[in-house]
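quick one: NAP bound model?
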Amino acid sequence: MVMSTNYMDYRLMKEVVAAGLKCGFRAFDTARDYGNEDIVGRVLSECMRELHIPREEIFITTKIGNSQQILGNIDRQIEISLKNLRTEYVDLWLMHWPYPDYYIETYHKMEKVYHSGKAHAIGMANYRLRHFERLFDAGIEIMPHGVQYECHPMRTADEILSFCKNNNIAVQAYSPICRMIPEIRNADCLKSLSDKYHKTIAQVILRWHFQRGTVPVFKSTKPERLRENIGIFDFNLTDDEIREVSSLNQDYKYHLESASCPGY
Ligand SMILES: NC(=O)c1ccc[n+]([C@@H]2O[C@H](COP(=O)([O-])OP(=O)(O)OC[C@H]3O[C@@H](n4cnc5c(N)ncnc54)[C@H](OP(=O)(O)O)[C@@H]3O)[C@@H](O)[C@H]2O)c1
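yep, here:
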């Protein structure tokens, strides 16, 4: 499970990340476009030192934004991220969007960065199947290792999930609890599973992700919720229950597409 750090200032992030590490989280999500990659670096290095956690136990995902794709100096962009994050490598480096006219060339440059060892894995966020098809048609050397897209019970994105499973690509599901919007909070099937297992609705959904094989990338600014969100490893949904939760799907996307990525 991955904790988000986006749009948090130093004080809040330190509190949330330290609490997360203490209850067992080890993976963190950021992006150049979130504007606080350097704070993530400061917070993680301080927390690792204070809690005696070695770098190898931490998994950092960051992303390269559209404006950096336009600049084209992708090898320089990883250096900036590494400096911000105070690390010699990132665990997963994602292209944030399939920016039209740039994303194929960007991916080829990211492959070179992968070979340099500065990114231990590469991939992309917000790709539709057609972007994978175009990229694969153009020829790739390194199969993407990880993909991040919006995924929750109201957007199960089955086609992309099967594609990733078939190609052995790990999936990170962003907005995994769909911000707990009323349609989620009030869904009968989630309420009854919550009652049955004595778990919260958020825990039922996070467990649904775990059993489907998608890694939730959630955000919380409340340390007290972190223990709740990691408390999903002591119950099991049946196959029918997984299907029932998936039946909430209506291809609903909470996050609109990037304004600079029209028609993505
Ligand atoms: N790659 C991309 O293009 C992309 C796009 C969007 C998002 N993301 C990533 O995904 C992360 C998460 O997405 P998101 O923030 O949209 O959605 P989310 O994680 O589904 O929802 C976050 C909201 O849920 C609340 N929450 C967390 N745990 C809860 C719980 N146990 N019970 C009730 N409410 C809970 C949080 O409130 P509190 O703060 O009050 O706990 C927050 O308002 C982002 O922060 C970002 O890192 C990536």
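Strands lie at 2-4, 27-29, 59-64, 92-95, 122-125, 146-150, 170-174, 214-218.
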